[in-house]
User: Fold these one by one.
Assistant:
Number 1:
Amino acid sequence: MQFMLLFSRQGKLRLQKWYVPLCDKEKKKITRELVQTVLARKPKMCSFLEWRDLKIVYKRYASLYFCCAIEDQDNELITLEIIHRYVELLDKYFGSVCELDIIFNFEKAYFILDEFLLGGEAQETSKKNVLKAIEQADLLQECKTEKHESFVNPSCI
Amino acid sequence: MALKIVKGSIDRMFDKNLQDLVRGIRNHKEDEAKYISTCIDEIKQELKQDNIAVKANAVCKLTYLQMLGYDVSWAAFNIVEVMSSSKFTYKRIGYLAASQCFHESTDVIMLTTNQIRKDLSSPNQYDTGVALTGLSCFVTPDLARDLANDIMTLMSHTKPYIRKKAVLIMYKVFLKYPESLRPAFPRLKEKLEDPDPGVQSAAVNVICELARRNPKNYLSLAPLFFKLMTSSTNNWVLIKIIKLFGALTPLEPRLGKKLIEPLTNLIHSTSAMSLLYECVNTVYIDVNTPPLPSLSLSLCLYLSLPPQLCVQKLRILIEDSDQNLKYLGLLAMSKILKTHPKSVQSHKDLILQCLDDKDESIRLRALDLLYGMVSKKNLMEIVKKLMLHVDKAEGTTYRDELLTKIIDICSQSNYQYITNFEWYISILVELTRLEGTRHGHLIASQMLDVAIRVKAIRGFAVAQMATLLDNAHLLTGNMQRMGICEVLYAAAWICGEFSEHLENPMQTLEAMLRPKVATLPGHIQAVYVQNAAKLFATVLKSQEGNTDSTAAQETSQLMIDRLPLFVQSANLEVQERASCILQLVKYIQKLQQKDVEVAEEVSALFAGELNPVAPKAQKKVPVPEGLDLDSWINEPPSESESEDEQPKAIFAKEEPKHSRPRREEVDEKELAKRREARKQEQANNPFYIKASPSSQKVYQEAPGVEHIPVVQIDLSVPLKVPGLPMSDQYVKLEEERRQKERAEKKKKEKKKRKEKRSGRGKKHDSGPESEEDITPAHQVDIVTEEMPEWSIITSYIFIKTKSYCVTVHVCSSRPLADSEKLPVRSHRAAEAPKSPTEDGDATSQEPKKKSSKEKREKKKDKDRDRKVRISTGLFLCLLGNHSHLILVSSGLPGINKCIQKSKLVFCFLPLTKVYDIQGNLQDGSQVVVSVIFENKCDSFLKSMEFNVLDSLNSKLQRPEGSGPHDGLTVPFQLPPGVSNEARFVFTVQSIIMPQKLKGTLTFIVKNEDSSTHEKLDFKLHFTCTSYLITTPCYSDAFAKLLESGDLKCSSVRLEGVNMPFHHLLARICFHHHFSVVERIDSCASMYSRSIQGHHVCLLVKTVSIDAKCDEPTLLGNVLDEIKQTFSQC
């Protein structure tokens, strides 16, 4: 997978993950172009389109579009599966996820994605394992933060 | 739970955290940029503080802003600071920010190496995990090199969580730092059998991706993967493994056989569509894109796997209600179509159904498929369906797409699948009724193409076009349809050019001169005007036959009345043509009033037929022996006429750059006469290889077509009604025709008659199986380079009644080399290679003399000027042993007469002994060109001056004191019938490239009463071969030379050379100055040396030549020339 984009129906970018090194200018250009193309498609249309020399696989969940770019030889259906799996993960983590969850906790959404995909490849196919890893990392963060808080800014407690 | 606590505590801590920022941005929709710039200022303040928590918060906010498109590269160092925090919370944010913001050119990345290494070896697995994740996004070659060892160690970490991350990131490391692959590979291979399925799947992933780049190195892993494939139940892993085998199988055919069973099982059993799709796809991708030479072997896999199985499974996909599956099914189907068209064709119904799909991308896919599915049998049916869709289609883009597809489908491979062109024309006419299409020009070009190339259809096409012109108002009715009015361009041209087929030319003429025409675009009006003139000629002709001359005069009056409208046109082209024609018509009217018959002369203006000519056709023309090219076919032009033509034009060659049919003018009578003459000559010529009767018939289709019943059916009634779909009736007619034909054929077969099918070329019957039974009703003229038969005809297209034949004198039977420059459009030049027997007495040949004073009729002159382009007759030829003979001729009428009588033969020889000029540094760079001048005319030639335009590389050596542009005087005069030789020395700097030099010869032709100054342009061609000297070489010296290693290698394949091997060698020796060193059976080594001492060694086999030389460019050129030699035979 070359990159993954999440954007709203209004065309606002909600999340971006690039697995190929590109400069910011190029990234912006691609994002703008793709968001336009995908939003222009009618709801009944299939989820795949050919774009430059890549294949774009996208799926809409509520008001959010999940959009992945894969190479020519890659499997479109398994990419759809990846998107779906990621949505399920978000759903489990946030508890029936909505767009706002992702906006306000965008770093969490990234953490989950990073546990699920690494360098553009699926690293963990078991949902349970991904969630476990995230929860443990969060716990680690929580206790550390509390300790840290009491140390740094006692007056706030 | 955990999340809530974290949220709460951060909320309390800072003035503005990420949530506040997001909320703020949402609340400031109007002045977002302003709000964000104040936020960035705050963030800058926060970053200045020492508190790491504040910094982390600021970095977190920056990451968000970065996503919104703001530049945060200025904070790169702060990100590194946060990354190096010892707290996981901040580290996590730091790495996230780095992975989002850093790229290869971020310079602070250098600072992170040690920090990352520390994190990788951290006892906390999440520290390590976060570092690995971050690294996967911003790894640079430097980081990869420095950290490769650390990551490799992590591949054997005790925690599977770390192991799988480490394995996956190794792929990125390999990409950035390939040297790490070798040491890391054994460990990577171990991970394929890791107890943890996650690690295992990661290893499969990595190896699969690696194998796609270079499959050869991973063949040894095949058994391991095979085991995994049969044991694994994880679809993600299975997909990767199948992909991997797709890459490996072409290299190892046995693998294919082994895979059949598990693959078939998977295809049958799996419920996962993604896996099924991968199976089908891989199997076919495998075949279609063989990466390596073992193409035929890789076929094993798919050959033994019946395509029906896959196609059937794909059918299930396509029939599914899910759009995605439908789309992918069609996509995969199109891959199978390339190899198994038949198994896909049986699902035509299904594909056609997809045209009704709501999803445009699915419809387009289906259209793509249809393009490959048509055959002679089903073309009409498919196009009929498509036409229905055109009517129903919503949205112009899709309709335009349909339109182009219909035309693509019909016109593919030279109308291969069209059996009835009347049907096709009517389809095109129906397409013109499309609302608002942009593709008017496409339809127009098809109409033109078909009308020009399918001669038998012209009558029908003209009738259709006349109807179109009559109803032009329907096309131009509203502005939206402007695109379609392009069709009128074609219609007007066809009606004009083939006006003899018009039933009622007068009516069409009137239609073309309607005032409304002036609203059309300029270029169309121009065609209208020009073709109105053509029609006018036709009408006059028909009317003058009558006793009543008033009709003819009325026609002229009509022209005179209507043309002024066009004379006023703002478009220059229209104006120019109109005023020209208007004056002409006025003149005609004057003549008519004097009761002079003018029709004949007027129609001569436009006489002649257009014929398609392949771009390289002329080269393939064998000139029959005995054809006298010296004799005048027509009277030569008078001098006064020709003098206004600039001699400069000699070099203004027109060489066709594309294969569009050339329009040539041929006098039918003359053509027939020549055809007869040629047949006779061919019959007497033992060297002439007769074409098979079937291929000759291709050109005589007119009588053959008459046997086809469909042509004779009276179609006038439905065709006169515009707006009525009529292509359908041709479908029926075609069916009838085919049935009839089938019946006839059966009859014939019963009687076992050997007669060929009437009047149809074989070419189109090459379709497989039952396709052959369907013969086209009309023949398309196909002009390609691979059609020698055509050239037989085209040669007589070039040699026209008005041609000025140019005398060419050839001393050898060697075919013309590629270097000759032959303008295809030339009407006045032709060359005649003579048989070797004529060599000796060539000089004694007397050219036939024609009196230049014979008068030519004025109209013929006009006739010539209309279509005949001034030819630039100048061509060169490579001939003979070590001599290069150049043929010079000129097509310019002024010079022509003279050239025609004075033959010039140029030869040049390379200076073979380099020590001729002792102590000269330019040894080996001199070439002597010896030129034989031969006077074949009756006049005395004197004061000849030979001059060559020097190039940087080659210069003519001139006596001291003369300028670089001065000519050399030829030291003799030439009385009639005398030849003499002069030598000119050239200095050549580099001999590695062939050279062409332009030159001129000026001379004075002296008759009893007058003397004229004449000029002759020529080209000298220095081929690389001409720089080679036949030098004997002994086999041991030859072997030493090859071993020395100084020589560069190159090779060339000789295609289609079927001559005995010793002839082949003889040719190379003879034409390219090589000597045979050693010959063993059908393999020989040859040697030659250039004048500058380059060694050229050849290893000649029957089909290929391997060559070595110390100068690769020279070698390449010599090989090209050798190849050319053989392509001529």
Number 2:
Amino acid sequence: MAPKSKGGGAEEKAKEVLTAVLLADSFTQRFRPITVEKPKVLLPLVNVPLLEYTLEWLALNKVEEILVFCCAHADQIKAHLADSKWLKQRSPRVSTVVSTNCLSLGEAMRSLDQKDIIKGTFILVSGDTVSNMDLGPALAAHKERADRDKDAIMTMVMKPTHEPHQRLRLGDTSLLVALDSSSQRLLKYQELDSPAAAAAAAAAAAAGGQRDSSSAHHGGHHHHHHHHGRRGRSSQVWKLDASLWSERDCVQVRTDLIDTNISICSPEVLLMFSDNFDYQSLKRDFVAGTLSEEELGKKIHCHILQGEYAARVHNLRSYDAVSRDLLARWAFPFVPDTNVFYKAGPWGPSSYRYARGHKYLEAVTGCSRSAQLGRLLAVGAGAAIGDGCIVSQSVLGRGVSIGKNCRITGCYLQDGVVIGDNVTASHALLCEGVVVGSGATISPGVVLSYGVVVGPRHTVPAYAIVSLCKQITTEVSLSDDELEYASAGRVSSSSGRPPARRARNSTSGGGRQPRRSNAASDSESSSSSSSSDSDSSSEESSSSSTFGDTLGVKSMEKPSSLAVKAAQVLAGGDKDQKAQIAGQVSELGFAVHLVGEGGAGYEWPMTDGYSAELYSIAPPPMTLAEHVYDSDAENDAAGGASDDAAGPDTARGAADEPGERSGGAGRGGAALDPETVFMQEVGETFLRCVKERFAETNAVIELNGLKIAEDRTFADCARYIFTAMLQLCLPCPGWVSPEYGCLFPADAPDSSSKDGKLALLSRFKQQLREWGNLLRRFLRSEDDQVELLLTLEEFCGAEGVFEADSSGTAFAPLFANLLQLLYDGEVVEEAAITSWAAEKEHADEGEKLFLQKSAAFLAWLKEAEEDDSDEEDSDE
Amino acid sequence: MNLSNLVEEYCTQLRRRQIKGSFACAKKTAEVMRLLITTQRHPDAASLIEDVRTVGTKLQAAKPVELGIGNIVRRVLHMIREEQQQEQLEASEGSSTPGDASKGPQGPGLLSQAFRPGSNLRAFNRAVSLSNLLDTPAMSADGLSSSFSGILTAAADAVAAAAAGDAQAADAEGMRRQQSSRKGRAPPQWSSKNNVIEMLNELLDELDGIEQQIAQQAVEHIHANEVILTYGMSDTTFLFLKEASRKREFQVVVAEAAPRFDGHTMARQLADAKVQTTLIADSAVFAMMARANKVLVGAHAVLANGGVIAPAGVHMVALAAKRHSIPFVVLVGLHKLSPLFPHDPDVTLNDFQSPGQVVDFDVLAESFMRGDEQQPGPDAAAAECLSVEVHNPAYDYIPPHLISLFVTDTGGYTPAYVYRLLAEYYSREDYSLDKELIDRMKL
């Protein structure tokens, strides 16, 4: 399905409209609970909605057509655009595409493909990009490549950074990238969990092949690698295919690149998303898929930025870092005093002026003369700062009011925040309408969502996240839909509103699987929407099968009106009013330990194992940072014992890493060999599919995701799905986590007795009936089927990976019957069986055990085949 | 697409820094002005002035650092005012004695008008003298000035204003009557508008020819075997040197102009034009100055006191030249001539650009961790306080005493003569564009 426009010729190409797709939703929940009420792209960054930065930057690059793809809170985004200058301007044309039931980037791409609105090369960005990059060179390079070779479908923009702390600062994960030095073609894209692992990988690569030391700008980085290379060791070893080097003279293996998530795509990219319906994330699925399927010949290239700024606001850490970068003018011309951004409201258009020390004040501010305004500060119009305040490194929105003698450092106060006297606040994010009582202290890392009230003289503990929305936690045994009704009923009864669209916080564990279950149910209730907010790519661990299954966390999209009313009274009302509603307030059950007496707000627990210290709005504490980054330095003292696989320090360092959540490995410890880990992961994934009664297609998606993440073949998956099916006929083996225990039968039929054999076989038959189709989908060729038979052999003989768990021997006497069942169930074809037999003919006597057992079946098969051919002959 | 949208779009482009260079900004502003004058209907000069000023203020506010925008707006206003005066003069002469002044050729500048008999008073009151140099236009209009010329001015202005006011009032009255009788019909255009448009077209042509005009004077300023020192890239300077190289043999020393390093481009282009070129680091400027015969630089704007705003680093070059008593010549088109003083609070002298040109982004991360060491404690606030603050200003201000000569499209002038040029190109009432607007809003 190549685009048919090729015939159009040069003129059609000439007037190709430069289009950008701006994803106004990035499908994760890093900014909750703020995003429960407002989409992330409308979150103000230095007093300007995030979306504006991306739009301005695209406009700066003379993009003619911008499609804003909205999922969650689409109405709010549309309203914002309607108010803004964008719809009034001739160029660029900004239009919205609304698709409320998309839950991942992949689905968004497929929906765009269906709508068939994109014809030419397009720029794909998320709505949280802040950049001043000139797209010209990257676009020109992409088009030039695409003209030469239409398989060059995508150009990814990356930014080099040599300082390891940069990632910590931006809240990014490490990345290993292999590039062809001459063409900048991407050969490998691997998100790494810890810098230590990255160094180890680079060291492995250095040992494995030539390294590119020719590029001059990259010299320091080169050195850096060697430095780490000496001590690099980790429980994770990343392998680079030797074939990378076989065809090329020079390969760069780099860990210094930060992915900006800006990509230039050919329209084929949309087609590929449609063809591979299971692709969800751009990086984890699409890029990994394209790179692994080299035989398709699709190529991805990289564009490395030099000196230009590009960053994403994908979590609170980067929100803080990017705000500071903006104030320090790194993204010029996107600095407050150019007043590029449109502003409406009572204080009129943006009117910032620059003052020494990176201070930006709008024209009408009411700062007391005795207030000390420090560096890196932006103050919106109408803000009032009381006597004796010390304010620095902060962003104050319009109409913010600060009492006397406050100390505000590193805080983000959105429009209309009210702060009493003698308040100390540092490194916190206070959303619109927050009221802080006099004498209160806001500790670092605190996030107060819309309308929260903090009582006087109360200290909000560090890293507390408070919202007027209540997070509702329920057992997952309720299906999504049931839960939906439950909460809808609650909303309508309490506020009289019609049932609101519900926000789904499906990934209590940051895993991808629970979300898939939503995807499944979404086909039934397409009106529901996700209000996820930041991209899944970096945080989601590919194998987090153990998380998020016990808890289903749900929240309402709006705080209850009672809570809002109570908060308003507590914030501004007089004593009588407060006394009046005292009863109601106690009924509402606000989290007093967080907001204090006279405060309003509920705790919003972070359930997804996301390290609060590392990714909060406050800079991470030094000790933690040291721990993460110098864990390998500690090991350095031990000398160059690089073969010593898992030192205790490294294990600790790796385990603390946010990305490190691979369930199987976590439980099994680092000692397990990767094959066993993979077997268990496939097994667990499959078991979950069984437990949650996934439709077959969804199960395929799950397993495919795992396959891509682990870079395995279809046969690998099929093997372990198959063994898991066999194990389901027996009592629960040791490696399975208890939650799936109920799936297994309690008793073990005695396979030596005839009854026992029959029972076992009927159980397996049942399994095969249910999941045979799934198995078939993973058996792509005859070779795969042979592979499966060999696995069956191993399983029955308790060899290889199955050595630890000898339950498979129960099936040993039934080998021939199993073979028969597989054949009858059309899982394994005759040709595969014969070629397996042929292969085994030449094996050692000891390995022929199962061949002998199935001799009768094989003979029957041969006979049947001859009969068939006879019949065919007779037909002629 | 209506005009206001167009203006808004142009403003956005200015704010985004999409239009680079004072020449491009000046040209675009002139085009917007032409569009404004040609497409909108204006019954009289006053309404036209009002319109031009409103739009002009908006444009200038979009990029305060680009003084060229305001300059063009003032030039246009000046043209309109001149035309208005001409009209009034004709009207008054028509009513009293048919004078000879109106029959004379339409002098483009005030200077020619000043020497015309009969218009002496006019020219005199418009000329800038020490006594009224710093007067605000409001003062002279109010007749509060106590100086002799001030009184004269006030008297003349009062007379003119009264006459004009009467005429206008009568005109307006008539028009209103006309309008009320025939509703729906657009008000008639101001009759002299076409002259303004013509002059504006001339201005646009003039803008296009500016660099050539300057370059033509090159041979008068560059002599054989001289060593010319220049700083960074400037199109005007390049054309000037190229033109000179057709007749003369000389050497050019180019300072690279960190952190933008456009001196590299300059050196390359000069070498391609077969000029003997040497590239030096900025830090070598002082040492190299001893060998130079002349310094030639381009500028961003010329201010009312004869000082200039030029790319960052030029001040250092000017000081070095002064120390060695080397002539410091600034090549500048007269569209860069601004009637504002450097101490004017309205003048934004500088544009602080991205530190990315100066240092690597990584510097932030280094200081990020170092700054964090101050934790723990309540003063965790101090984190990142140690962070390096990186500044990258775009411009320098060079005071007039360091400048030997301006070479403009109309010839060479010393800084002391700048005030005179101002009087020729701008009307005093327009020196401040937006202050008046604010005053009017207050009223």
